[in-house]
Amino acid sequence: MQSDSPFRNAAQRESDRVAKRAAVLRAAVQMFNERGFFATSLDDVAASLGISKRTIYHYLANKDQVLLECVTIGLRQLLQAAQEAEQEPGTGRDRLIRFLRRYAEVNMDDFGRCVIRTGEEALAPESRDQFRALKRKIDDALRGLLEKAIEDGSIAPLDVKLTAFVLAGALNWPARWHAADGSMSSEQLSQGMVDILMAGLIPRDA
User: Which of 7, 17, 150, 191 is spaced 20 to 30 A from 56 at the CA atom?
Assistant: First the structure.
């Protein structure tokens, strides 16, 4: 029998807490991207949500934790994209393309954009190690996809480290100039940019 109690049960309260915490992070990341981390205060974030700064502290300990959570969300989205790409059928090139397109799309969304726009110096020293570790995992994933594509002959045998730097560097830049209300969607831009970049990886005897 369904209860008619006006009081929310534990599961409902936890769902509310998760939703409110997510709303704080979304509001914060948008302000960090627009104004910069140092020019944004938690008072600003609270005001945008119509709550008090004390309410934010109920969900997140301090401004550094807010930033760390924001960049961690973006980096985990990239890691998930790499894991999903590795499970795709087809050639190594196909899997690399899948990852690169999603990589670009994530970097044009709020949390991925925050990863690119926020230097690690904005994080507290104890948070930087976690930030760097996640970035290394993404770089390792990209290099792994490149190595497998080289092994199966679907891309040219290029220097893996240099190629990873070039690809990531090119696909990081839309985080700084892409506008959501622009003439091209993030999906269209990611496809167009990856097509251009992949043209340089075609095997020379192809």
Answer: 7
